[in-house]
Amino acid sequence: MKGLILSGGKGTRLYPLTYTRAKQLIPVANEPVLFRVIRAIRDAGIDEIGIVIGDTGPEVRETVGDGSRWGVKITYIPQDRPSGLAHAVKISRDFLGDDRFVMFLGDNVIQGGINTLIEKFADSEWNSQIVLKKVANPQQFGVAELNADGSIKQLVEKPKEPKSDLALVGIYMFDHNIYEAIDNIQPSWRNELEITDAIQWLAMHEDMRVHPYVHEGWWIDTGKPIDMLDANDAVLDEMTPGIADDVEIDEASTVGRRVKIESGAKIINSIIRGPTAIGENCVIENAYIGPYTSVYHNCKVSNCELEHSIILEGSEVSDVPVRVMDSMIGRNATVSHTTQKPTAIKMNLGDHSKLWLP
After folding, report:
1. Which of 14, 55, 75, 147 is the 20 to 30 Å CA partner of 349?
2. All structural domains of the chain
3. Averaged pLDDT, 283-287
């Protein structure tokens, strides 16, 4: 089998963070979501992976490389415009050939990996396997309606009135028949080739078999800031804690046992309670870092308190008089306090930014 990861799209729901960064490269528990997807596919025994890229392709190429760090071979497949998931499959045919493959959306986070799913599909005669999850807001996803025997009755992309609460998780398995299905569908009202329509085409043919699998663990589509925080919570809960050998922690500091601190970090007169991840070369001084917080590489946090937040690399949070919570702070940002007069709030905010003041 081969792997196909979709890493195009503009990530508009995550603006302003994704103005300058591919959404798939935003870290969850200090690991880019795309890296987690690559590992999941590799751990399922697949070492040939294609990544479909769009406008953010240069950054994805530079960050991911050739795949050697994971022991896989990466092939990049440019998509000139976002024309739907089925279109991404269609343009990947030269890479995929007639091999069976798993397609994974590069901004999805799922509990438990995909090893069992891959094994079941590889050993079956199914033409496709789709992963479903019960959700509270099915109208925001592709939705599957099942028959009484568990087979697929209907698939609809983002229905206004869903007939089911089973959303299509961004993980799909196909054999070569998917190409015929794509050739027989038309663009949707969004002018995109929808993968739901292609799967529906397969499911309606008597000689084809599409197997629905209902996932019981957690799954998060990291499309919005609140989703990123939820994903961060879930992954931090599963994180293996540990402190790198060269981390400096002074006697005035307290570090909880569910904490991961990476190489070169310094903890000075601070309290860190887990689950929390502190990246490489960070300096945490006179600070409180509360549960469910990720501070990425080369950050400085001083004279302030953070909790349930994601701080991206190179940022500085200092001298803030109130606790920072439920927040995402982008790369190389500065959040601080001034004593200079006139006493006022001073800020430079990007488009679509949000700011809440106590």
Report:
1. 55
2. 2-224 (3.90.550.10), 239-335 (2.160.10.10)
3. 97
